Amino acid sequence: MTEWSLLIGGAAHAAPLLFTWFDALATAVVLIIAGALLTGMFMFVRIASDDSDRYKELKEMVETIFGTPAHLRPHSEDNSAKDGAKSERRAGAAAAFSEPCPACSETVTERDSICPSCGLQLL
């Protein structure tokens, strides 16, 4: 019976030591993970705010997610060629036309945004 009491008593003394090492190890792991996440976020912000073209694709993704999408941003260098084609299409679309108003059949032109007869908003 004394043997059992020695084993139980010895385990009781070893348990606080075991939990102390476990707590220290768990705290260290959590701090390492938190530091890695913080470093990753810091590097991500530095890359996203970099003015060079090294991380151009990443910056476009970040601006699309958190800001204005690329197709809605004001004129940029790579959109200048696309804008020339778009302005030619707009010029063709703005060509003179006259057609009947869908509501009252009065003739409207490209200059009318509102039908002069019935006041319908035209596109």
Describe, in short, the structure shown.
This protein is mainly α.
Please tell me about this protein's structure.
This protein has helices at residues 2-48, 56-66, 80-93, and strands at residues 98-100, 107-109. It has 123 residues and is mainly alpha-helical. Strand 1 and strand 2 (107-109) form a beta hairpin. The protein has a domain at 2-73. It has three helices and two strands; from the N terminus they run H-H-H-E-E. It has a two-stranded antiparallel ribbon with strand order 1-2.
Features:
single chain; 123 residues; mainly alpha; two-stranded antiparallel sheet; 59% helix
Write the layout of secondary structure elements.
Elements: H1 2-48, H2 56-66, H3 80-93, E1 98-100, E2 107-109
Antiparallel strand pairs: 1-2
Low-confidence stretches: none
- As a percent range, the share of strand residues is under 5%
Q: With helices defined by DSSP (H or I, 4 residues minimum), what is the helix count?
A: 3
Helix content: 55-70%
Q: Please identify the structural class as seen in this structure.
A: mainly alpha
Shape: elongated
Please count the beta strands (DSSP E, at least 2 residues each): 2
Please trace the helix and strand order, writing H or E for each element: HHHEE
How far is it from the N-terminal to the C-terminal residue, by CA? 97 Å
Radius of gyration, whole Å: 35 Å
> What strand line-up does the widest sheet have?
1-2
Sheet with the most strands? 2 strands, antiparallel
Please tell me the overall pLDDT: 75
